[in-house]
Amino acid sequence: MKTRLLKISSAVCAVAISVSACTSGDKASTTTDSTMADTSKVVALKPAGPAPDWGKTIKPEMQTVIEKLASYGDKPIETLDPAAARKNHTPTDAVMDLVKENNITIPAPKVDTTGKDIDVAGGKVHVRIYTPKEGNGPFPVIVYYHGGGFVIADLDVYNASAQGLAEQVNAVVVSVAYRLAPENKFPTAHNDAFAAYEWVVKNAASIKGNPAKIAVVGESAGGNLAANVSIAAREKKIMIPVHEVLVYPIAQANMNTESYKLYANAKPLNKAMMGWFTEKYLTTMIEAQNPKISLVNANLKGLPPTTIITAEIDPLHDDGTMLANKLSDAGVKVNSRNYEGVTHEFFGMAILVPEAKAAQAYAAEQLKAAFK
């Protein structure tokens, strides 16, 4: 994915869209307490054109981000090979350009970041560790898995979500750069995800973490990975996460659900892209029915309390609701919340999109309660 803006300073970029940054961003001034935001001074982003046909209910701030993303003129991901697709602009690029154009102040980060390579079967994966600057720990730990359909994106593209959670929860966040497809086919990403979690369980104390307080969080493909980590922990009889937050997770293989039909042409994720991602990650399409991909077919009993966040204008909306129902049927405590007028990938846009700020705050609230 294109990270020309992010490579300059990953810390700055992360803070720019994190929840703690929202207050400064929304108010265009420096404030350290995001709960004290004066919503009357939020920078109002106004779209240039009418709402798109695929999203008539879209919020103006969300539409402005989508318009900026379209302005780059990139070719549709589903028409590209993976190497080219990874060079496309991302929603994060759009947010960062809008932040710059609207002179939104970026506050100082409240966390330090370090990188580490950890051993996994067949190689190594990189993790980025976010550690609160204030306090000595041990802090609760969140293992975070980014989105991108198992094929695109990286830690920089999803820096905002990881850092926002670290700052709001006052937790160590370990963001995992699992290996991508098609270079690494199914179930490589799933195996990497669990290996990283297992590493955190064994090494939490060395990163100022509390080994008794570990949760998992993931977005999209990462939401699928996070749930699979909980399942694998149960099966392998190691410590199960105390909580899981699944943000618009990939949870089943049927691309003819109502939300797939309604939002087949949505941006930044559409039905064609989901087919492209599936084809790139799986060796055969039969694997789409594997419970690791189709979580609704998995044994979900005994999983940790779960928070599911969905977006209205998203082909994966129904994946989230179906998974919530299946988890509840399996006796798992589930809290879920849908955010109207926003699209897939909205969660990391808290500096610009009010619904993203609310969703991050909701996730943080759920995690803090679990860590108590």
From TrEMBL:
Extent of the signal sequence: 1-21
Biological process annotations from GO: triglyceride catabolic process
Keywords from the UniProt entry: Hydrolase, Signal
Residue intervals of the Alpha/beta hydrolase fold-3 domain: 142-347
Example GO molecular function: triacylglycerol lipase activity
InterPro entries in the cross-refs: AB_hydrolase_3, AB_hydrolase_fold
Pfam families tied to this protein: Abhydrolase_3 (PF07859)
A GO CC term attached to the entry: cytosol
Coiled coil: none
Designated name of the protein: Alpha/beta hydrolase
Taxonomic lineage: Bacteria, Pseudomonadati, Bacteroidota, Sphingobacteriia, Sphingobacteriales
